[in-house]
Each structure stands twice: as structure tokens, then as C-alpha cells.
């Protein structure tokens, strides 16, 4: 059975309340329930974790390798744009990461156009709302993260 970790970074615990015009009306709980259900339908265990703290996210990335997680679906929130600590953690683990953003970061402020995570990720999905997480799960199910 494949094990996939879904990691959400800072402020994503506020989904549903936070800027709903950008991030939608659904909550993190809605997202986590949907992903766990979607995984279960095809014998994939989806493990969910959210933190507002950089170090906790780094610890989870290390733990993912130690617990033989097959892939990580990761929305690092604002850390995407400047956290070299998270970038180095991803580079240092033998576990593929797909970077997901709910909003289309490239249509937004200039500082959101840069991801320090993208160069160490298998792929990136932005702008498709919660569907982006589902598509990342589908990519892991198909083993697409290792393809050229
Ligand atoms: C985000 C985009 C980031 O720029 C922002 O800081 C977030 C959410 C997204 O999902 O669209 O917190 O990662």
C-alpha cells in the first residue's frame, strides 16, 4: 500500500475564512477528508499534517524519509518563496515532492512568482484550487513523479 503525505504550511489552517475570494470557501478539514477518501478508494494511505512553523515542516520532511513515505504533496504557503531551510530539507531526503498552490501565484504579487521549492520538486501545480492536490495524488498513483 502506497503512503502519501499531504503537508500544508502556514495560514492554510485558515482555509474557508482566509481571503475566500482567492482560496475558496472550503476548509482544510474538507480538503483532508477528501484526500483521505480519494486515497482509500485506490488503496493509498493519505497522511495529513499542517503547521504554521517552519521547523515542524522540516521535521515532517525528515520523518517522511524515515517512515518510508512514497511521496509528499506539499503546499508550503509563503515559505515557498523564501525558505532555504525547507528547500534544503527536500533536497536532502530521498522522497519525491509535488508542490501545490491553490491560487495561481504567477498572476499575483511579484514576490509570489519565485519558488525556492520548485527546483527540488518533481513538479508544481498552481491555480487549480483544491483540484491541484487531487491531481498531485493521481500523479503519485501513476508513478508520474519519476518520469522525464
Ligand atoms: C499559496 C500561495 C502563497 O503565495 C501563499 O503565501 C499561501 C498560499 C497557495 O496555495 O496559493 O499561503 O501557497
Task: Describe the fold and architecture.
The structure is a single chain. The protein has five helices and five strands. It has a single domain, classed as Dehydroquinase, class II (Rossmann fold). The longest helix has 14 residues, at 28-41. The protein has helices at residues 20-23, 28-41, 54-66, 84-91, 131-142; strands at 2-8, 44-50, 71-75, 97-101, 123-126. 34% of the residues lie in helices and 19% in strands. Helix 4 (84-91) links the parallel strand 3 and strand 4. The chain binds 1,3,4-trihydroxy-5-OXO-cyclohexanecarboxylic acid. The site of 1,3,4-trihydroxy-5-OXO-cyclohexanecarboxylic acid has 10 residues, from loops.
* CATH homologous superfamily title: Dehydroquinase, class II
Weakly predicted, low-confidence segments? none
The ligands found in this model are: 1,3,4-trihydroxy-5-OXO-cyclohexanecarboxylic acid
Q: Ends: how far apart? A: 24 Å
Secondary structure tally, helices: 5
Global mean pLDDT: 96
Q: What fold name goes in the CATH topology slot?
A: Rossmann fold
Task: Tell how many strands the DSSP assignment holds.
Answer: 5
CATH level 1 class label: Alpha Beta
Taking all Cα atoms into account, the compactness measure Rg is 14 Å
Largest beta sheet: strand ordering: 2-1-3-4-5
Strand content: 15-25%
Structural class: alpha/beta
Concise synopsis of the structure shown:
Helices cover 34% and strands 19% of the residues. With 148 residues, it is of the alpha/beta class. Helix 3 packs parallel to helix 4 (84-91).
Furnish the topology, listing elements before pairings:
Blueprint: E1 2-8, H1 20-23, H2 28-41, E2 44-50, H3 54-66, E3 71-75, H4 84-91, E4 97-101, E5 123-126, H5 131-142
Parallel strand pairs: 1-2, 1-3, 3-4, 4-5
The chain binds 1,3,4-trihydroxy-5-OXO-cyclohexanecarboxylic acid.
The site of 1,3,4-trihydroxy-5-OXO-cyclohexanecarboxylic acid has 10 residues, from loops.
Amino acid at each position: 500500500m502506497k503512503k502519501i503525505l499531504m503537508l500544508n504550511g502556514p495560514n492554510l489552517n485558515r482555509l474557508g475564512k482566509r481571503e475566500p475570494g482567492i482560496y475558496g470557501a472550503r476548509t482544510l478539514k474538507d480538503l483532508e477528508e477528501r484526500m483521505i477518501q480519494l486515497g482509500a478508494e485506490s488503496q493509498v494511505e493519505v497522511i495529513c499534517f499542517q503547521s504554521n512553523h517552519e521547523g515542524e515542516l522540516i521535521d515532517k520532511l525528515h520523518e517522511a524519509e524515515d517512515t518510508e513515505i512514497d511521496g509528499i504533496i506539499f503546499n508550503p504557503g509563503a515559505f515557498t518563496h523564501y525558505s532555504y531551510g525547507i528547500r534544503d530539507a527536500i533536497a536532502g531526503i530521498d522522497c519525491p515532492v509535488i508542490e501545490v498552490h491553490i491560487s495561481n501565484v504567477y498572476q499575483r504579487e511579484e514576490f509570489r512568482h519565485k519558488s525556492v521549492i520548485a527546483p527540488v520538486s518533481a513538479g508544481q501545480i498552481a491555480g487549480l484550487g483544491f483540484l491541484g492536490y487531487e491531481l498531485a495524488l493521481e500523479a503519485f498513483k501513476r508513478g508520474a513523479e519519476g518520469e522525464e
